[in-house]
Amino acid sequence: MRRPTLRPPRPPRTRAGRRRLVQAVMAGCVLALLPATWLYVVTGDRLRTTADVPRTEVAVVFGAGLWDGEPSPYLAHRLDAAAKLYRDNRVEVVLVTGDNSREDYDEPDAMRAYLTRHGVPDGRIVSDYAGFDTWDSCVRARKIFGVDRAVLISQGFHIRRAVALCQAAGVRSYGVGVQDKHDVTWYYGGTREIFAAGKAALDALFQPDPRFLGPKEAAVPEALASTR
User: Fold this and answer.
1) Could you give the angle at the alpha carbon of 208 between the alpha carbons of 205 and 212, nearest 5°?
2) What is d(CA 29, CA 213) in angstroms, rounded to the nearest whole number?
3) What is the spatial distance between Cα 78 and Cα 29, in angstroms, rounded to a whole number?
4) Would you say 210 and 135 are in contact if contact means Cβ atoms under 8 Å apart?
5) Residue range 124-139: mean pLDDT, rounded
6) Is 159 in contact with 176 (CB distance < 8 Å)?
7) What is the pLDDT of residues 45-68, one digit of tens each?
8) C-alpha span between 22 and 29 (Å, rounded)
9) Angle at 195 (CA atoms; ends 143, 23), nearest 5 degrees
10) Which terminal residue of the chain, N or C, has fewer Cβ atoms less than 10 Å from its own Cβ?
11) The pLDDT of residue 129 is above 80
């Protein structure tokens, strides 16, 4: 039996058909860009630098991968910004949130160790071991750790999404976008954000439960109390 030959779709032959095709393509482009536009609109006045971000009790640092058990360069830059905010008395406690889904992979503990080496006391660091993605980290910051206001720290290409999602989760947020050289990783991250914006919009709209929620923890209030 002969296998059917797959033929590429033929373009419309009529002017009306071509017009409808162009309109459909344009509509698809608009729909694809709507989530990214939403991110820019809702975060327009929420981005700051380490020098001018308002003083806030808690900073949240999102995980960004480990290299041989140590923070990747991108993650190290986020942690450097958090350490600077602490040294400048702009934050009192740092919540590190990342992936610890495997026994041999522990982002929060690696982040904690890095911060202590850079001048942040261990008692001022709180670890969230179930920050599997940005939405999960934001929801857990609010529901598990009781954070209702925070400075978020990430790379520039990710910070708008982080701020928008934390705002949707009930955390009044300012974002500090860490600058990095525009290497392959940076361009990959920027491209990925175009597609991640769609998921972010759905998360903000439907507000699903995180992959793991668990019981409430008093670690952040206790760390803040120790500073008084």
Assistant:
1) 150
2) 36
3) 33
4) yes
5) 96
6) yes
7) 899 999 999 999 999 999 999 999
8) 11
9) 130
10) N
11) yes
